[in-house]
Amino acid sequence: MALTRFALRTKFLSETNIGGSNTILKNLTQQCTNTLPKTLFNRSRTYSSSNSLRKHVRTSPFLINNASSNLLSNASRLGVIYCSRGLITEPGMVVPTLHRGMRDQMVDQMKSYYRDNYIANYNKELLNDIPSWLDGMGLKGLAPYFEGKNWEEIIELTSWEQLQDLGIMRPPHRKRLIRNFWILKRFLANEQGIELEEQARDSAHPIPEHNDKVDFVSLEDLPTMLNGIYDGFGYFAPHFEGRNWKEIIGMNWEDLEVLGIRSRAVRSRMIGFFWSVKRALAAENGEPIPKKTRRLGIFQRYDSFRHKNLLHDNNQV
Description:
Pfam families: SAM_2. It comes from Acaulospora morrowiae. This is 12746_t:CDS:1. Residues 128-187 form the SAM domain. There is one protein chain. The chain has 317 residues and is mainly alpha-helical. The protein has 2 domains: 2-92, no CATH class; 100-299, no CATH class. It is built from 12 helices and 4 strands; from the N terminus they run H-E-E-E-H-E-H-H-H-H-H-H-H-H-H-H. It has helices at 2-16, 69-78, 100-120, 130-136, 151-154, 160-166, 171-191, 222-229, 245-248, 253-258, 264-285, 298-313; strands at residues 22-28, 47-49, 62-63, 81-84. Helix 2 (69-78) links the parallel strand 3 (62-63) and strand 4 (81-84). Helix 1 packs antiparallel against helix 2, helix 1 (2-16) runs parallel beside helix 12 (298-313) and helix 7 (171-191) crosses helix 8 (222-229). The two termini are 28 Å apart.
């Protein structure tokens, strides 16, 4: 029965949200500002965006803006909350800063820049500015560790132990650095007609180690922080546009999904890293070490699924 109501609600929204101009409202405590003529039902309450869906909150039918009788009857029957071209804001609400198309475009630009300047043809002009050179790798936050060194010295740091001695603690950072150092070394060797042998260190660390060390210096640059979770996660930076690391580590499983990160494996790695940062902060400040929260139950997971679909209908992700 619940799934039937959900299907009817989705059908109603798709029929009334022509052109993507309508914004779905669902919860309490939110004001909808609208410059168009309005028809407001149930004036005793205002409603918040579905983006901040509170678990198990039930709201009364509510319709804003030029409601015809047939729309009102449909909205009342289905329990739909509807607002046309409303301006919705709420402090602390986790919503995507960028539209999905814009995020995808930014990711493509990041990948194209790396391919054109580091793989297809190495841009040696970048070597004159170490932070910019590292930025193209998604590792600008590690620039302080290389102060006083030129690029010729840096690319000779091809062992994990050497980078660890510099203070670079995260294995994914060291892995990404070493791989890029060898890319440049091979490019320079090819210019001289020399062929370098493949190095095992390019892709793996010979000695297993725990990946729970927190590098607070690297947290200040978003791609660097994400690449420290797992090599390549820096391309998720557009999903967190406009947020700093202190906001990001407070996000949960559902927040990441709302931001457009669909992969369970990716979210699991990110949440694990967020908790390691929280524990490190607590230990540094002498506070009780926080415990992980339980995973959502089946009804909460369904609520999250409904949340995602409402956001999708609303062109928010």
